[in-house]
Amino acid sequence: MPWWDLRSLSSFKNFRATILQDVSSERLKITATTGELFSPIDLPLIGRRNKQNEMREVQLGSHTVRSHGLTVARTHMHDWIILVLLVVIEVILYIIHPFYRFVGKNMMTDLKYPLQSNTVPVWAVPMYAILLPMFIFLIIYFRRRDIYDLHHAILGLLFSVLVTAVITDAIKNAVGRPRPDFFWRCFPDGKDVYDKLGNVICHGDKNVIKEGHKSFPSGHTSWSFAGLGFLSLYLSGKIRAFDRRGHVAKLCIVFLPLLFACLVGISRVDDYWHHWQDVFAGGLIGLTVATFCYLQFFPPPYHPQGWGPYAYFRVLEESRASTQADTSINPLNVNAVPMVMEDREDESNGSMGLHLPTNSGSAEDVEFGRRQYCT
């Protein structure tokens, strides 16, 4: 072979060795960073790795207060403004006087029950109807790290309670029905006085008399069913109570908040602050409003995707569409993470559906993690 061919061959070998060395060094850097081993053919696709990891995080529900909290709050800014307006309306309804209905002497037969204190005080209602559900929402958030679930659960709960409060107090003021203990509110000394038309002339404390005209419907009961009813719907979706597997123990968890709300309503009749019709109407109002507010943010509990809010699945769909678009642009990317939207039940899992998926490297592990998260 001529000497100039040998020199060309030697130069080509040196150039090839340099290229392979650079590829090997880059491969070692990537391996040290990601913990995975890549072949040289994968190197042009490494720039997509970060985006794939972001897609995986979206798929596994890693939306925290720090990363997405401000964005979610800004998206629902108008909803929070409406909540403030509802608070103002509720304060106004509480201050104004109710309708003072005609109460004659012959009507006092059912209004002479003793005046006694509340078994469930007023200050305790926000504790178990608002703070207790929020505490449970926080527990599930620290378990799943899903700000969409936490934000929409709190927002839906507050809407449920405040809308119920406005409806209840508006009806209270419009109806002005006397409480069962109205006689002793109106005549604390037991001496009843009536005008020439037969209507009562009360000489008791004005604030006590004012409260005596707010019997229908029961505020304690409506607030209880609004807050605890929302919590019951929320838990039924999280534990997949209607997954057709026959776990009756799940229904005990679902019915427990409703049982407590019923006991609160019964206490209002036992304390002679309300008639039974007041309690029935209050419970119906609270539970109806809670159902509407819950369905505004979450699928029905019996739905296959009833474990998560609508917003979570919307983000998941957008991420899947973005990944499919990127994959169609570069069909050689065999490491792309598939964003499967079908809801599949994990037949091997239990009943609670509050399991965190583990971050896996392969596409199959990621898909298994999503299934475990959805269960």
Entry keywords:
375 residues, mainly alpha, 13 helices, 62% helix, disordered C terminus, Phosphatidic acid phosphatase type 2/haloperoxidase domain-containing protein
Contiguous helical run count:
13
Q: Specify the structural class.
A: mainly alpha
State the total count of DSSP E strands.
Answer: 0
Largest sheet: none
Q: Which stretches of 5+ consecutive residues score pLDDT under 50?
A: 30-47, 50-61, 332-353, 355-375
Q: Mean of the pLDDT scores?
A: 77
Shape: elongated
Multimer state: single chain
How helix-rich are the residues, as a percent range?
55-70%
DSSP strand content: under 5%
Order of helices and strands: HHHHHHHHHHHHH
Domain Phosphatidic acid phosphatase type 2/haloperoxidase: 152-294
Family: Belongs to the PA-phosphatase related phosphoesterase family.
Main location: membrane
Subcellular location: Membrane
